[in-house]
Specification:
The protein has one domain: tt1808, chain A. The protein is globular and about 50 Å long. A seven-stranded mixed beta sheet has the order 1-12-11-10-9-8-5. A three-stranded antiparallel beta sheet has the order 2-4-3, covered by helices on one side. It contains five helices and 14 strands. It is α+β, with helices and mostly antiparallel strands.
């Protein structure tokens, strides 16, 4: 059953960071430090064993390691998206790709999709440019919440994706067994244990079974 997300709802215990898991860390750097986008890219390249993100304010996010179940769910969703794309059109982006957004934040989705025009532009770039963080806004984004992340923080991240022009977002919460769907100009909607999810008018014809997500 689909219900509108009430922003003032009392969150369940499963919406919080789960005990025993590491947490993402946000570092607020002194204003005298010039932590530019270029500096972020260089830092990430020199520490490729650590997952970083960058806020639009220039704060550095150090991401906690992903748990096995969340990693499996992310990979499973990307696999479905990749197989569909190979038979249809566009380009599927795997987990942890760094994406530079118009507001200068750098975020890494668990899966993303470029439409045909975006994919053609990507492949027109030089090999050196394709090796750098992508400066584009994907048409579709998926985030899978892990036990080290709260629902509130993940929903804030989804709003950042949407404010930069993403056309459809899914926030999958295996712990609460919910999916939050974001569309431009609308309140997010929540599906509890949906059987399937649809790409709607963005990935027309894409439909994914959710059975494996709720085991």
């Amino acid at each position: 059953m689909v219900t509108a997300v009430d922003r003032a709802e009392t969150l369940r215990d499963t919406s919080q960071v789960q005990p025993g898991y590491g947490q993402d860390i946000e570092l607020v750097l002194p204003e005298c430090w010039s932590f530019t986008l270029e500096a972020f890219i260089e830092l990430a390249a020199e520490n490729d064993n650590i997952r970083f993100e960058r806020t639009r304010e220039g704060h550095l996010l150090i991401m906690a390691p992903t748990g096995m179940e969340s990693a499996y769910s992310s990979g499973d969703i990307f696999g479905e998206l990749h197989l569909w794309t190979r038979e249809h059109y566009g380009m599927a982006i795997p987990p942890d790709a760094a994406i530079v957004l118009p507001d200068k934040s750098v975020l890494s989705p668990d899966a993303a999709w470029l439409d045909q025009e975006q994919a053609e532009h990507f492949w027109s770039l030089s090999k050196d440019e394709r090796g750098k963080p992508g400066a584009f806004v994907p048409a579709f984004i998926v985030e899978v919440r892990s036990p080290s992340q709260s629902v509130r923080k993940q929903r804030e991240k989804m709003e950042r994706w949407m404010s930069n022009g993403v056309r459809l977002c899914w926030l999958v919460d295996p712990l609460g067994q919910d999916v939050y769907i974001y569309r431009p100009g609308q309140e997010a909607e929540r599906l509890h244990r949906p059987e399937t999810l649809s790409g709607e008018g963005v990935l027309e014809g894409f439909e994914m079974s959710c059975e494996r997500l709720w085991r």
